[in-house]
Amino acid sequence: MDSSWDVWRSDGDSLWGGAQGGAMGQGDGDSPWGGAWGGMRGRAAGIPHGAGNEAILRGKQRGKGIPRPPPRPAPHSDEGKNTKNPCPAGAGPRRGGENPRPTCNSTCIPIHTQYCQARDDFALEFLRFYTLLMAASLTELDDETVRSMSVGAVFSDFAGKINSVDFHRTEDLLVTASDDDSVRIYDIANASLLKTTFHKKHGADRICFTHHPSSVICSSRHNLDSNESLRYLSMYDNRCLRYFKGHKDRVVSLCMSPINDSFMSGSLDHSVRIWDLRVNACQGILRLRGRPAVAYDQQGLVFAVAMEGGAIKLFDSRSYDKGPFDTFFVGGDTAEVSDIKFSNDGKSMLLTTTNNNIYILDAYGGEKRCGFSLEPSPNVTMEATFTPDGQYVVSGSGDGTLHAWSINMRNEVASWTSHIGVTACLKWAPRRAMFVAASTVLTFWIPDFSKLNSQQSTAVPGGV
Known about the structure:
Elements: H1 19-24, H2 51-63, H3 109-135, H4 143-147, E1 149-155, E2 162-167, E3 173-178, E4 182-187, E5 192-198, E6 207-209, E7 215-219, E8 230-234, E9 239-244, E10 251-256, E11 262-267, E12 271-276, E13 284-287, E14 293-296, E15 302-307, E16 311-316, E17 326-329, E18 337-342, E19 348-353, E20 357-362, E21 368-373, E22 384-386, E23 392-396, E24 401-406, E25 411-417, E26 425-428, E27 435-438, E28 442-447, H5 449-459
Antiparallel strand pairs: 1-28, 2-3, 3-4, 4-5, 6-7, 7-8, 8-9, 10-11, 11-12, 12-13, 14-15, 15-16, 16-17, 18-19, 19-20, 20-21, 22-23, 23-24, 24-25, 26-27, 27-28
Helix pairs in contact: 2-3
């Protein structure tokens, strides 16, 4: 079994794995999943308080080519000999000078030296991956980083298919909605579940964050005839703040404006509606053919509506009542559009169709920059995603694989086994080198440093 599947069977006190998870994984400390994230709280791994700062400094020095200094000799004392509790428990007084720890005697120096060496090695390994997470707020990726992506966390306690996922724009949060009628919020920096609420009356289908990190908009799966197809939910106290009534069928596309309290919904009743979180009434309606998909650009000034026949209409969000200011057509594909997204820089649009074709379009002129075809996935609508720098596209496929393409080079950069079957939901975090993939299982993917190091070694002559 792939060791990455076991890394999260730990006690929950770790960031990306835990010592127990590392033991179940590769366990040698040379890989992301070998317990390197174990003991985020420090003491669980035997790292004293403050050792992390020193380790970070050493890491920065090594990054500049400065060799790592040998481990400092541990403090020893000939007084207060204690053979029952040798120095690995920690020599010297505790903070505050109270309850002194047992001191070391000369007979345990080899044990203490090994302990200190292991502690320093662990601190350095921890630093490598702590640095990864903190530096993951990157603005640009490269092929090697994309190729190195691996499963870092697995959440398999869902009782049904995951219908949609969304990242908060400014906080390290992820929300999911699934067929088991649950809405769940995760802390992606710690890969931990923060909150679960169940919505048996209406279910949970499409979902997106509002600007507040504990509020979401969720569409209904049940009781659609009640017109309560959209709900404004507070995850903090599990309350429904407002119902938005109007759609007569399932909502299949949902997005929040990045600049104000407006949001859009597209439904199988062949309509797109514009809403305001502060009022119940619909602010605008667009009637169209077929299944709609909607998206705001990252500045919130333009929104796109894709519809049957590959038509994409662009609207000014401040004067949408005047109609579209431009219309594009994706020629040669008559399938319905299942999803549409803008890149962060606003230069490209990503279009996914129900027959698993992916198109990247120029957002200004509508020209097709490139396109990719994937294996069909009957009864499963696929999702594709831009990376934050807009240079790559990642998507699932009907054969249970994941693929990444370079937009500029128009070639496939990486391909992975998803480990979870056909992936219905896929999104890249807006500020991290991380994406999530979901079917009936949720997986977090982050770069694997062992792969990065091996790639860099082979790229450098004489690399070891």
